[in-house]
């Protein structure tokens, strides 16, 4: 069954850059750079519905009413540590957004998330939250992160991932049907270790050159 809250960002630049990220031979520095570029392009789509209000402006030649952003302020929340890769680019695009961090790691036996850090702005209930994590695999981490954000008062949340597995999308939508999901690709499936196939490998390791 299709996921009604899913948007696949199939822009040619996003798709091209995602392929560069998937390539095994893409080195760490280039991976970081391209992830940053992709996240800016994704940020453009994620913010497409931000409300505008006409406000008076004086150009060197005339006065008129011109559109400026209005409504809720933004908060970008990164799931550590791979989320930092997407956060960097989006922050460039949205420099006045507040930033939150959620530290969750996947227990390699159970594949369930374990929280070790949580810090978000106090006024999160007044903000539009964009939660970023490159890989939506089983979906458990994103589900847990959104539960924590809702517990902290967040009422308006979007999830941005680079690559999603069908299993993760279903799990996430079942838990949080009110949260729209944006992804650059929906891949084939998970492997027996919970990695996305074909995917791009471990996003954190590729971003930081670990392993
Ligand atoms: N996390 C990753 O970094 N990669 C996957 O394929 C799945 C989860």
Describe the protein's architecture and organization:
The protein is an alpha/beta fold and 211 residues long. It is 33% helix and 31% strand. The chain has six helices and 14 strands. It has helices at 12-22, 28-46, 83-93, 140-151, 166-175, 203-208, and strands at 6-8, 52-58, 63-69, 73-80, 98-106, 113-119, 127-132, 135-136, 156-160, 163-164, 181-183, 185-186, 189-190, 196-197. The protein has a seven-stranded mixed sheet with strand order 1-11-9-7-4-5-6, sandwiched between helices. A three-stranded parallel sheet has the order 8-10-12. α1 runs antiparallel to α2 (28-46). The protein is globular, with a radius of gyration of 18 Å. It starts with 5 loop residues before the first strand and ends with a helix. Bound molecules: uracil. Uracil (URA) binds next to α6.
């Amino acid at each position: 069954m299709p996921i009604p809250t899913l948007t696949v960002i199939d822009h040619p630049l996003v798709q091209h850059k995602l392929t560069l990220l998937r390539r095994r031979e893409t080195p760490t520095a280039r991976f970081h750079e391209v992830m940053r570029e992709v996240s800016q392009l994704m940020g453009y789509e994620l913010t497409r519905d931000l409300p505008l209000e006409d406000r008076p402006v004086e150009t060197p030649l005339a006065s008129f009413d011109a559109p400026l952003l209005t409504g809720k302020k933004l908060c970008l929340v990164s799931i550590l540590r791979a989320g930092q890769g997407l956060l960097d680019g989006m922050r460039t695009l949205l420099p006045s957004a507040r930033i939150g961090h959620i530290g969750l790691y996947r227990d390699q036996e159970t594949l369930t998330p374990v929280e070790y850090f949580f810090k978000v702005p106090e006024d999160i209930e007044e903000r539009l939250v964009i939660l970023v994590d490159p890989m939506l695999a089983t979906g458990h981490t994103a589900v847990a992160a959104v539960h924590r954000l809702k517990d902290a008062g967040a009422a308006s949340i979007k999830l941005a991932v680079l690559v999603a597995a069908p299993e993760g999308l279903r799990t996430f939508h079942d838990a949080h049907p009110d949260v729209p999901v944006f992804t650059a690709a929906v891949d084939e499936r998970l492997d027996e270790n919970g990695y996305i196939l074909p995917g791009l490998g471990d996003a954190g390791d590729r971003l930081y050159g670990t392993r």
